[in-house]
Amino acid sequence: MELRTLRYFVAVAEELHFGRAARRLHMSQPPLSRAIKQLEAEFAAPLLERSPSGVRLTPAGAALLDEARAVLARADRVRARVARAAGATALTVGILGDSGDPRARRLADAYRRRHPHVEVRVRETDLTDPTCGLHAGGVDVALTRAPFDETGLGVTVLRDDPVGALLRADDALARRSSLELADLADRRWFLFPPGTDPLWQDYWNGGVRREGPVVRAVQECRQAVLWNGTVGVTILGHAPGEGLAVVPLTDMAPSSMVVAWTEGDANPLIRSFVRTAIAVYRD
User: Fold this and answer.
1) How many CB atoms lie within 10 A of CB 283?
2) In this structure, are residues 127 and 197 in contact, taking their beta carbons and an 8 Å threshold?
3) Which of 68, 174, 224, 247 has CA 20 to 30 A from 283's CA?
């Protein structure tokens, strides 16, 4: 039994879907399926119940999931201890400046419990760089939102958040219980500067080319709406601020909170951060 195989199993058990687990692991589905079947052969017991819609853990699979998580967490601690002994005692984390997330505090607490001697340096970036400096090599790992250019990066979705239209509170549309993107077609939207990742720009503009003021930070978005009557998209769970309102958008895909890192980076502190983030955000 190899740690890699246990990681494969944990991914499938947490996603409850081979396709999603394969994407999370950045591999194709057939070798993942073979690895799980080999693991079941080693234990001489079925670990998963398979169906067209996904998978479900068997009692043996549930037991293995608990043990595998513990083994992998222990392996992360061993790697981190060796890394510290070798001089790797710091981790730089990029965080998107899209207002506070209460889970981020839980993540900080959980990671500090695992690595009390590691110095975590936090770099908050504005909305023009959804990778928070990963592509530029400025951070080791990022807690951010998709979509963006994932070339050379590992990305795991932590949570999907519904979104809504950000409006002035006295806007006629603010009295509606819900909206569709077509309701905002004739309005001016806030935009990100030229050169911003096109996937990122396209998502926050509802998939349509828009016109409006250029912004770089969350507070600038809110001020553009407050002062100019501009509209835009925001997370439903975020407090909009005085004088503003958020109305759910029924035909727009949710915003995915993700953890991202440079693919192939062997730093054990990064791997531990990713596993801790998954545990905290999916709890």
Assistant:
1) 8
2) no
3) 247
Give the DSSP letter of residue 118.
P
43/70: higher pLDDT = 43
For 209-238, how does the pLDDT look when each residue is reduced to its tens digit (9 = 90+)? 999 999 988 888 999 999 999 999 999 988
Q: Are 124 and 152 in contact (CB under 8 A)?
A: no
57 close to 65: Cβ distance less than 8 angstroms: yes
* Residue/partner pairs of 67-75 with CB below 8 Å, 24 or more apart: 68/6, 68/9, 68/10, 68/13, 69/10, 69/279, 71/3, 71/6, 72/3, 72/6, 72/7, 72/10, 72/275, 73/114, 73/275, 75/3
Closest CA to 157 of 246, 59, 257: 257
Continuous segment of H or E residues that includes residue 15: helix 3-15
CB 176 within 8 Å of CB 167: no
Cβ atoms of residues 81 and 87 within 8 Å: no
pLDDT band, residue 80 (cuts 50/70/90) = low
Widest distance between CA atoms in the chain = 66
Q: In this structure, are strands 119-125 and 232-235 parallel, antiparallel, or unpaired?
A: unpaired
Does the structure show a pLDDT above 80 at 85?
no
pTM above 0.85, yes or no: no
Q: Which residues contact 208 (CB under 8 A, 6 or more apart)?
A: 181, 185
Query: What tokens were used for 232?
Result: 């835009």
Please report which helix (H) or strand (E) contains residue 130, including its range: none
CB 202 within 8 A of CB 189: no
Q: In the predicted model, is pLDDT for residue 256 greater than 90? A: yes
Which pLDDT does position 28 carry in this prediction?
A: 85
pLDDT band at 146 (very low <50, low <70, confident <90, very high): very high
Q: Round to whole Å and give the CA distance between 144 and 199.
A: 14
